[in-house]
Each structure stands twice: as structure tokens, then as C-alpha cells.
Design brief:
Blueprint lengths: L14 E7 L6 E7 L5 E7 L2 H11 L7 E3 L1
Parallel strand pairs: 1-4
Antiparallel strand pairs: 1-2, 2-3
Length: 70
């Protein structure tokens, strides 16, 4: 198990990984957007780019393809 990436399970048919940034405070969180309703569900607060890269690896999403919502 050492060195393996722990995947984050989510329903690719109904959810999309995304980054949410607050325009007021600058706080950044990663999570999932419901494709039907547009509702964002927080997964975790991030403080640097490396954490976003880790989230992308764990969800199997390319960094260039992850959407940012405000």
C-alpha cells in the first residue's frame, strides 16, 4: 500500500470535481459540482497548489480540465 494514491470516489455521471475560490476572502476549497443542480459540495480546504494537484490526481482529473467556480 506504500506509495499508492488513495482515490476519491465520486459519481462521474452526476458530479464534476471543481475548485471554489471566494472573491471576498480568497479562501480556496476543492469539491464537487452537481451537474444537474450546480450545487458545490466542499471536500476540503486547500492552502497551496500542491494540494490542488493532489486532489486532481486522486480524482483522476487533469489540472487543466478542472473548473474554478467563484
Amino acid at each position: 500500500m506504500f506509495g499508492r494514491i488513495k482515490k476519491i470516489d465520486f459519481d462521474r455521471q452526476t458530479q464534476e470535481p471543481a475548485i471554489r475560490k471566494s472573491i471576498c476572502t480568497g479562501e480556496t476549497t476543492v469539491g464537487f459540482v452537481d451537474l444537474k443542480t450546480g450545487h458545490f459540495s466542499d471536500y476540503m480546504k486547500v492552502t497551496d497548489s500542491a494540494q490542488i494537484d493532489d486532489f486532481c490526481r486522486r480524482t483522476g482529473t487533469e489540472r487543466e480540465r478542472i473548473r474554478t467556480v467563484y
